[in-house]
TrEMBL record:
Its cofactor is Ni(2+); Fe(2+). It comes from Hylia prasina. Keywords: Amino-acid biosynthesis, Cytoplasm, Dioxygenase, Iron, Metal-binding, Methionine biosynthesis, Nickel, Nucleus, Oxidoreductase. Residues 1-21 are annotated as: Disordered. This is acireductone dioxygenase (Fe(2+)-requiring).
Length: 180
């Protein structure tokens, strides 16, 4: 089961867990109120998994690929790791399904605090368009993930500040409605 927590303010290695002391856990319900959707799937059978097939049909995830993030598999590895960790948003939802390995997605809460979401094999996450987030490997330095998209993939990340984009404004409206 996925685990999430509020991050400490330490500037040490981004791949460290960065838990506050005492730990401040974040529930799936708290993530849902931020628009973050979590699912647990059978990563060993992703090619034939009827649950994944149904999710793709229901959500109209018509395009997918698989990416491996490891120093021996990803060109310009160190540069890419730094780019993934820059705070940004997308104009479309970001859907990632961990097939092997592990890593962290960090998202901002409604008060602009970082929440770290630990992702491992079998975890699928959907980050809503307009949410500020970032990704890093954990100390295992390896992840193989499926990327899913509605229609043609759009890879553009808009680094913070990006508050004037309609996707960000729509996301902020969603947060305000969730607060009531």
């Amino acid at each position: 089961m996925v685990e999430a927590w509020y991050m400490d303010e330490s500037q040490e290695d981004q791949r460290a867990p960065h838990r506050q002391r005492p730990n401040r856990a974040v529930s799936l319900e708290q993530l849902r109120r931020l628009g973050v959707v979590y699912r647990r799937l059978d990563a060993d059978n992703y090619e034939t998994d009827p649950c994944l097939k149904e999710i793709r049909r229901a959500e109209n995830y018509s395009w997918m690929d698989i990416v491996t993030i490891h120093k021996e598999k990803l060109p310009n590895y160190e540069e890419k790791i730094k780019i993934f960790y820059e705070e940004h948003l997308h104009l479309d939802d970001e859907i990632r399904y961990i097939l092997e390995g592990s890593g962290y997605f960090d998202v901002r809460d409604k008060d602009d605090k970082w929440i770290r979401i630990s992702m491992e094999k079998g975890d699928m996450i959907t980050l809503p368009a307009g949410i500020y987030h970032r990704f890093t490997l954990d100390e295992n330095n390896y992840v193989k993930a499926m990327r899913l998209f509605v229609g043609e993939p759009v890879w553009t990340a808009y680094n913070r500040p990006a508050d004037d984009f309609p996707a960000r404004k729509q996301y902020m409206k969603f947060l305000a409605e969730e607060a009531h």
